[in-house]
Amino acid sequence: MIDAIYAFGQGLMGGIWPATVWPVLWALIKIVCVLLPLMGCVAYLTLWERKAIGFTQIRLGPNRVGPFGLLQPIADALKLLTKEIIIPTAASKGLFVLGPIMTIMPALAAWAVIPFGPEIALANINAGLLFLMAITSLEVYGVIIAGWASNSKYAFLGAMRASAQMVSYEIAMGFCLVVVLMVSGSLNMTDIVMSQGKGTLASAGWTFLSWNWLPLLPIFVVYFISGLAETNRHPFDVVEGESEIVAGHMVEYSGMAFAMFFLAEYANMWLVAILAVLLFLGGWLPPVEALSFIPGWIWLGAKTFVVVTMFLWVRATFPRFRYDQIMRLGWKIFIPVTLVWLVVVGAWMQTPYNIWK
Q1: Alpha-carbon distances of 348 from 217, 294, 342, rounded to whole Å
Q2: Which of 42, 80, 144, 310 could cross-link with 266 by S-S, CB 3.0 to 4.6 Å?
């Protein structure tokens, strides 16, 4: 269907513009079709978080702006858009402006290779997983630049904490992705999902038992917890320890510059959640064959919503960790566990009991 739309547009525009214009225009249309719903999801995730935590704490949450508080994210966006962006006098102005851009850019660019169905992706490239690892690792530069350019001890200390934490858990997440790469035999995100729909249990109709979460359960748990740390979410949000360093690397930011850090954080939550679904929970595949009449994009959306809600559940449940506990968990527990499981899966694949043939 997408190819038919592309061919129709090419035929329609062929007599008006040069042949090189339509492919560029088509790429821009696809980018808008991905980014607009994503921005909507990011905005309303803030409302869902406040509602979910309110439910956990036996209160209502936002309910004043619009019916059931549904217009609260729009009111927040308008407020932030109209606030003045104040640049501190002693700040490095160029880098101060660059910090939020460097933070949000990788969070949005990573969605270029996320498939929403078979062959439905902005760029269905063969090295999609490699692209994701490369582009998401750039985000740490935005955090460091923002902290350093603010010329504030609080911001700089927060940036150091955040960057050390992000680098620590990126290693464990990287090993998790390597294990998935081993069992899938491909870096293409679509191929990784489709490989989870094969096997004896999938043939019997119990597709959810053939997904990667079951044989790779320790890796799935490490990935999810590392995702919490990577996005600086509770209980790993020592970057924003109110009693110590106020708001961390973004303490000197205001208005939309401040909002860009939060947009990046919530976009990353959606990204980590949809990656967990694609890599471990079968993507758009139905849990049982009997439910295959439901469109794949609905399954993908529902699974992603459940995973992202678990982020909020964790925030409402656990106390904040100390910084030394966070570093110990990343370096002394998660990295050894993923390395051991990497070797175990590698050895398993060389035996007659290999379930990923």
Answers
A1: 15, 35, 10
A2: 42
Alpha helices, DSSP H, located in the chain: 2-14, 21-56, 72-82, 93-109, 128-136, 139-149, 153-184, 189-195, 200-203, 217-230, 242-245, 255-280, 296-317, 323-328, 335-349
For 340-355, what is each residue's pLDDT tens digit?
999 999 999 898 888 8
- For 16, the enclosing helix (H) or strand (E) is none
φ/ψ of residue 257, rounded to 5 = -65, -40
**How far apart, in whole angstroms, are the C-alpha atoms of residue 273 and residue 10?**
35
58-74 confidence digits (pLDDT tens): 998 899 998 989 999 99
- pTM, entire model: 0.91
3-state SS, residue 117 = strand
Cβ neighbourhood burial of 24 (10 Å; 0-12, 13-18, 19+): exposed
Q: How many C-beta atoms lie closer than 10 Å to residue 314's C-beta?
A: 16
C-alpha 230 chain-centroid distance:
9
